């Protein structure tokens, strides 16, 4: 066919930015449109967490009115956890409004959001993000629209997939992060 470029299936992939193909993440070896989609998806999920942190901290009036903002003495966990009625109601109602729960929840939102947006610490973001989302899933049981799945589970799976394919390497600081001496010594920080 005229104008097509044929490629030997056994030939090595071309290098990107001087890296050998084997050292590049799956996301970095994807086509440029796929890289953009993966990077934008990662950033969008990060913004989901960062926005929740900002709204709950400053009471921007979307989910949290200013009088219930964390900086105004409000509790970020009270509204959500005190209304739990499902099989784990006792567990979650007992956590509602506890200072330790508020701090852990807010640090989780901020850390997960920044890690995903920047493309750094993707393994930590995947583990902590999945844990937070699973707790939110359990707190929302029983569900009324689908007895098994909801957006918490699909977001958790998406974050895990993004971490596994190295999506922090595209439109993010993942490659630079991985070269830091601390991250080299502690690879779980990747």
TrEMBL record:
<feature type="transmembrane region" description="Helical">
    <location>
        <begin position="124"/>
        <end position="141"/>
    </location>
</feature>
<keyword id="KW-1133">Transmembrane helix</keyword>
<feature type="transmembrane region" description="Helical">
    <location>
        <begin position="36"/>
        <end position="54"/>
    </location>
</feature>
<protein>
    <recommendedName>
        <fullName>Thiosulfate dehydrogenase [quinone] large subunit</fullName>
    </recommendedName>
</protein>
<feature type="transmembrane region" description="Helical">
    <location>
        <begin position="153"/>
        <end position="174"/>
    </location>
</feature>
<keyword id="KW-0812">Transmembrane</keyword>
<feature type="transmembrane region" description="Helical">
    <location>
        <begin position="97"/>
        <end position="117"/>
    </location>
</feature>
<keyword id="KW-0472">Membrane</keyword>
